[in-house]
Design a protein that fits this description.
Number of domains of chain A: 3
Largest sheet of chain A: 13 strands, mixed
Shape of chain B: globular
Number of helices of chain A: 8
CATH topology of the largest domain in chain A: Jelly Rolls
Largest interface: A-B, 55 and 64 residues
Structural class of chain A: alpha+beta
Structural class of chain B: mainly alpha
CATH class of the largest domain in chain A: Mainly Beta
Oligomer: heterodimer
């Protein structure tokens, strides 16, 4: 049998006539059936391995691309008298000066990181650390690799401060907002995250931490490894140990620490993959997350909409699709005008 | 071949994908940033792989794909697609990769002894790949064997085979992307599969 024909048959690219030809050939002998089996296996094993590719590369490249776009926009604006601006309105026109700066800082940081790989690091002298801050504005999301190899994905409206060089015995960073960490393992150099009065301490593992300024609860969700979670004023024995699948919560008002096992981690991690997931979340919370992710303003025509509870995985990256899904599952309608969306109850 | 148009199977998923692609292109043309992000994340890994397969350099392939996306966003107002979105993206990546390669080659002619970072077109021989895929060892071995053999194929055949098996492009799409006739694509895939079969010998289970 011709290899070309077999390949077309396996790829479902053949005509009816050719299909019948292969079927006839199969009837000729047991050996032919065996032969086809081998080809089928070859086809199966060689199929679609795209999942192998590292997603963190995409995240990194997306940050770089955004910086390039924003740098271009900035240039364009500086070379053009303001009053004559007749360019059609785009999402970027709304981006504040600060988010541009943030993007440039991100870019400088990325360049710094890549650049540093080419030079040998001098032995760090123990001096007062100089801190740098990396921040994401509304609608932005990005990830950075720190000098120790730790990968940090930052959600919108979140920022992380860290020293230019880590101390010799400990790696300390300060977080505001929400981030996902894949900490490079170093037995003798724990990684500490300070966030809103609490501290998360690890050796090497992956987990998400969240405390936005308006959150009453600091949350830590562990994907892999062991994490110590405690109030910043307490010793390590006062904290809780979180393992894979554990959610630790510190209530800032009651100063109470708790931990529970969660079955579905998606609501705590989905932002990292670029989508929102909710499990019995009130619309009040959904509103906050929408505003953060899409840099929009969310309004409710009736006040009690904020009490409705949503369970959904909003995987579409298009805002309109996301709003449609929410409306559909809660029996609402919505109107989207520029960057303001208003939900209404259906009569 | 008179019956050429009578395909055995219609793929509803392919039709759906195309409808989705059209609305994505429309949204981007109107400056929808979220749509652009969606496009990026959907195609970035595959396009990086494809670019890497042409340039054999991690840095060059990243630059290639960045340039393609940057160009799309920059010229989004006039973005027109005559074929499918998938074909358009792969075509753009191929063109840009060849452009960048040519530029680099010109530079290398000046500075001869520069080291070129060779990067295999797949990362399957990197550590941890088996763990990532959660494959039994046997399957992982088979996959590695196949793709190592593919690495030895002539460039064009390798590209054709990869686009078909890894990216799921049809013969027609591959022909458009690589600027070949469908017949040539068929020949390449046929010869690729015959070669693999021969190399893998008589083992019934590969």
């Amino acid at each position: 049998m011709q290899a070309e024909l077999l390949a077309r048959y396996l790829s479902k690219e053949c005509t009816t006539q050719e299909y019948l030809e292969v079927e006839r050939w199969l009837l000729l002998s047991e050996g032919n059936v065996e032969e086809l089996k081998i080809y089928e296996q070859l086809w199966r094993v060689s199929a679609n391995l795209i999942k192998l590719e590292d997603e963190s590369d995409s995240n990194l490249d997306w940050s770089v691309l955004q910086s390039r776009i924003e740098a271009e926009d900035l240039n364009e604006e500086m070379n053009k008298p303001k009053l004559l601006s007749s360019r059609s309105r785009t999402a970027y026109d709304n981006v504040s000066y600060f988010s541009r700066i943030a993007a440039i800082i991100t870019l400088m940081f990325l360049v710094g990181f890549y650049g540093s790989q080419f030079f040998e690091q001098p032995l760090p002298a123990e001096v007062e650390p100089v801190f740098k801050e990396i921040s994401m504005n509304k609608g932005q999301r990005g990830s950075v690799t720190l000098s120790d190899g730790t990968l940090v994905s930052l959600n919108s409206e979140s920022s992380i401060s860290l020293p230019n060089t880590f101390k010799s015995d400990v790696r300390e960073v300060y977080l505001e907002g929400e981030a996902f960490f894949e900490v490079a393992r170093m037995e003798d150099k724990p990684f500490l995250i300070y966030i809103n009065g609490t501290v998360v301490e690890v050796l090497g593992t992956s987990f998400a931490v969240r405390a936005f300024p308006d959150d009453e609860i600091v949350r830590t969700t562990v994907v892999e490894g062991l994490v110590s979670f405690r109030s910043a004023s307490e010793g390590i024995e006062e904290g809780v140990l979180l393992a894979s699948g554990d959610l630790g919560e510190f209530n800032l008002k009651q100063k109470r620490l708790s931990k529970e096992q969660v079955k579905n981690l998606a609501p705590y991690l989905s932002w990292k993959e670029g989508y929102l997931a909710f499990e019995n979340a009130t619309m009040d919370e959904v509103k906050k997350q929408l505003e953060r992710k899409y840099d929009i303003q969310v309004l409710f025509a009736e006040e009690d909409i904020e009490l409705l509870e949503l369970t959904a995985e909003l995987k579409s990256r298009s805002l309109r699709n996301v709003l449609e899904t929410i409306s559909l599952s809660l029996n609402l309608s919505f109107e989207l005008d520029q960057e303001v969306v208003e939900f209404k109850k259906l009569p | 071949m008179a019956l050429d148009s009578q395909k055995i199977q219609i793929h509803p998923s392919a039709v759906q994908a195309e409808i989705k692609d059209i609305s994505l292109v429309d949204a981007i043309r109107e400056g929808d940033q979220a749509a652009f992000e969606q496009l990026f994340f959907e195609y970035h890994p595959a396009l990086i792989r494809f670019a890497n397969s042409i340039t054999r350099s991690k840095e060059l392939s990243r630059d290639t794909v960045q340039d393609v996306f940057l160009k799309i966003w920059r010229n989004r107002d006039q973005w027109n697609i005559h074929s499918s979105l998938k074909v358009y993206l792969y075509q753009s990546v191929r063109n840009q990769a060849l452009n960048l390669l040519e530029k680099q080659n010109n530079r290398y002619k000046l500075k001869e002894n520069l080291h070129i970072d060779y990067s295999p077109s797949m990362n399957i021989w990197e550590e941890g790949f088996q763990k990532k895929l959660e494959l039994p060892e046997e399957d992982a071995k088979r996959i590695m064997t196949i793709w190592m053999l593919v690495e030895k194929m002539p460039d064009r055949r390798r590209l054709v085979f990869e686009l078909h098996r890894k990216d799921g492009l049809s013969y027609k799409e591959i022909a458009k992307v690589l600027d070949l006739s469908v017949k040539t694509v068929e020949n390449h895939i046929g010869q690729a599969i015959r070669y693999l079969r021969e190399q893998l010998g008589q083992e019934k289970n590969l």
